[in-house]
Recover the amino acids of this structure.
């Protein structure tokens, strides 16, 4: 039965959750629910609001919300129960991990200003996309960009981030600014360190690839403003996931 939590829980969440932007609904909804869990707004063992209510607070469809909840369940953060008193319940938070992987992730996060990295990445990515579109790439450059896009489309999940990096580096290199390309390579290495610390989400990969296709189409069509807007939205989606999992 799709019953939600009590009124107090709904009121607490209504003060924190907000409708997400249309372009990155899944990523931003996931980030917001992760924040709710980290803040302890729903206690261990507590029930989240009903799907219809939670989807309404976030401004997403119930299909999107179910995908968000599926990710959280896969990560061991919530569990779904059936029956009259069923719903989605918060699982008790485990004690902090002490293994080497967790220590390495903490070291990576502590070593960088995540917000600064995300801002710089967005500035460079958006700038590169705009410059490429304005420069009217020639046939050879267009073939390079198409090949990089095809690489992301054909990459299996385990290879997707490497292919994604190559696509973005190709845009930076084709921007005509060696300094921009060098700066982008450096900041992207840091972004990849952070990405290695969060799950690889199939829904996010499909959305990311659709944005890549729109981006390349805008660049090759000479639509600089469109290319910048798509890239800015694309960066915002990645940033939302990183903030959600690492903050």
């Amino acid at each position: 039965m799709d019953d939600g939590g009590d009124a107090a829980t709904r009121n607490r969440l209504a003060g924190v959750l907000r409708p997400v932007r249309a372009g990155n609904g899944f990523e931003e909804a996931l980030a917001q629910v992760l924040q709710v869990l980290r803040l302890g707004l729903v206690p261990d063992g507590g029930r989240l609001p009903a799907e219809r209510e939670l989807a309404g607070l976030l401004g997403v469809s119930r299909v999107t919300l179910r995908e968000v909840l599926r990710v959280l369940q896969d990560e061991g953060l919530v569990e779904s129960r059936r029956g009259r008193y069923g719903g989605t319940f918060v699982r008790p938070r485990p004690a902090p991990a002490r293994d080497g992987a967790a220590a390495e992730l903490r070291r990576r996060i502590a070593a960088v200003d995540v917000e600064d990295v995300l801002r710089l990445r967005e500035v460079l990515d958006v700038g590169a996309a705009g410059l490429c579109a304005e420069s009217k790439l020639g046939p050879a450059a267009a073939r390079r960009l198409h090949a990089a896009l095809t690489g992301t489309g054909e990459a299996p999940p385990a290879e997707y981030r490497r292919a994604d990096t190559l696509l973005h580096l190709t845009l930076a290199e084709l921007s005509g600014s060696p300094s921009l390309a060098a700066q982008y390579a450096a900041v992207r290495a840091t972004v990849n360190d952070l990405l290695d610390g969060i799950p690889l989400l199939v829904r996010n990969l499909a959305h990311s690839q659709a944005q890549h296709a729109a981006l390349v189409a805008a660049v090759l069509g000479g639509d600089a403003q469109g290319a910048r807007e798509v890239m800015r939205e694309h960066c915002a989606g990645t940033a939302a996931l990183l903030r959600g999992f690492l903050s």
